[in-house]
């Protein structure tokens, strides 16, 4: 992989003993996960329910649009990415949620039949000033299709439980 020299790349976590905590999200670490197939019926159902613009619902309108064909809503791409994040690491972590996302960019249409993968890079990690049991992690996610084309990027913060804080909470107070 070009540009990954010296970086730690982590694949999907599976065993409970590998539960990720704040300490596992060091700056520069890269996680890769995904393999989400984009289903045409799901694209149409999501668009009908949440983003009923013609280029997400109708083949003819989509072909006449700037998208040049039927494509998933950007919000559907976000939802599929969230699912891959949950399956890839969040459900096997000490995640405490997120205060939000920044800089979401939809760069290329996501088409029915595409397969999406995610590459997450840790940009910043620091303990919370107000909640010592929590660490804050800023990440950048790059969503790619089966041709390694980047279709979406976003940045955001996650909150994760800290092993050090948990260990400190269980330790007896110093004698004194």
Could you list some keywords that capture this structure?
176 residues; alpha+beta; Thiol Ester Dehydrase, Chain A; six-stranded mixed sheet; 6 strands; 25% helix; disordered N terminus
Q: What structural category arises from helix and sheet content?
A: alpha+beta
Major β-sheet annotation: 6 strands, mixed
- Give, in spatial order, the strands making up the sheet with the most strands: 1-2-4-5-6-3
How does CATH name the architecture of the domain at 18-39 and 71-166? Roll
- Enumerate the spans where pLDDT stays under 50 for 5 or more consecutive residues: 1-16, 170-176
What is the CATH C level class of the domain at 18-39 and 71-166, in words? Answer: Alpha Beta
CATH topology of the domain at 18-39 and 71-166: Thiol Ester Dehydrase, Chain A
Description:
- The protein has helices at 40-50, 54-57, 59-64, 74-88, 163-170, and strands at 9-10, 30-37, 100-106, 115-127, 134-144, 150-161.
- The protein is an alpha+beta fold and 176 residues long.
- It has a domain at 18-39 and 71-166: Thiol Ester Dehydrase, Chain A.
- Mean pLDDT is 88; it is low at 1-16 and 170-176.
